[in-house]
Amino acid sequence: MNFVCFLSIYILVSLTTIRAKWTDTFSSLYSGISSSISYVPCKFTECCNDDYISPNIDKLDDLFNTEVFGQQIAHRVIINALRGHLTWSDPPKALAMSFHGPPGTGKTYVAQMIAKSFYKQGQQSNFYHCFNGRNDFPLQQDVELYKEELRKVITESLKKCERSIFVFDEVDKMPEGLLNVLVPFLDYNTRLKTLRLYGTSLNTRKAVYIFLSNTGSTRIIQRLLALWEKGEHRSKTQLEDFEHLISVGAFNEKGGLHHSDTIHTSLIDHYVPFLPLEEAHVKKCINKSFTNRNVLPTENMIQEALSYVMFGPSPHNLYAIAGCKRVEQKVAAIIYSQRKQTENNEL
Ligand SMILES: Nc1ncnc2c1ncn2[C@@H]1O[C@H](COP(=O)(O)OP(=O)(O)O)[C@@H](O)[C@H]1O
Ligand SMILES: [Mg+2]
């Protein structure tokens, strides 16, 4: 090999090495800059990352133990369902749970606790969406419009974050047929495993959908009473005692799930019964309300709060008709009137 040939090979090799080094340096510099660029806004606004979303089911379990009274079945079913869904790195479908039970038994309260245990910003998270049947979708004749709006909101949210939670409160007040729009979002998507909409590929399978309603309440109460009459203690009741009962009720009673495709195609994974609350549970709610306001209640104060709570159905009158609803307000009023009385006595 003559000298000129050797020199040209040497120059070529050197240039290639320099170029490769530059490319490396440039790309690491670029990725450093771009990760800082995406990091900086996430310092100030919520992003779909582990800093903001870290579902903590142990924390939810603790909250159930300390803050929720008389809902052992719901406790068990919800914790198991969420653990099952979250431990799957690629779940086969979105998780869909339907909470059923009389008013004031903790359905909305528990949905809010789930948000707290998922998102750093709890209910305020941009990835937590709560729709109310009565307020957001009041008119049956506008159902097609609502469907389009709902499809858009869900698609946009899933585009931003796969771990979104959608809560539909007062499902029984929603126009019939509206929730059929959810079928592609809840489905197994067996073929594509993604939903192609607006030219974007969406993973629909990591989301959680929660439906809340009073449908099935009468059946839940009747079944619980029948078990009580047979001497079976509430704490011994099982999901199987209620699940079929409420899925049938949800399908047949009027409202959002009435004859819906969502139920027809078995896209709801868990029907969760919320049992009517007894006097002992309502007393716990009353005590908690006083404690939250840093007041140690006397027995008289508890009895006064309890006197506003109606019980039924007759003849046994075992269950609070509106559960723990309005207990907070009654307790606040009692504390206020006690203070006023003390002030007047001091004058
Ligand atoms: N099982 C329960 N345990 C403890 N507190 C409860 C329970 N059920 C209801 N509450 C209290 O009553 C309030 C109203 O309950 P909520 O969850 O709105 O009832 P609903 O079942 O009608 O959605 C809650 O914010 C909570 O303070
Ligand atoms: Mg509610």
UniProtKB/TrEMBL annotation:
Residues 93-241 form the AAA+ ATPase domain. InterPro entries: AAA+_ATPase, P-loop_NTPase, Torsin. The keyword Ion transport does not apply. Residues 1-20 form the signal peptide. GO terms for biological process: cellular response to misfolded protein. GO terms for molecular function: ATP binding; ATP hydrolysis activity. Keywords: Signal. SUPFAM superfamilies: P-loop containing nucleoside triphosphate hydrolases (SSF52540). It holds the Pfam family Torsin. Belongs to the ClpA/ClpB family. Torsin subfamily. This is Torsin-like protein. It comes from Dufourea novaeangliae (Sweat bee).
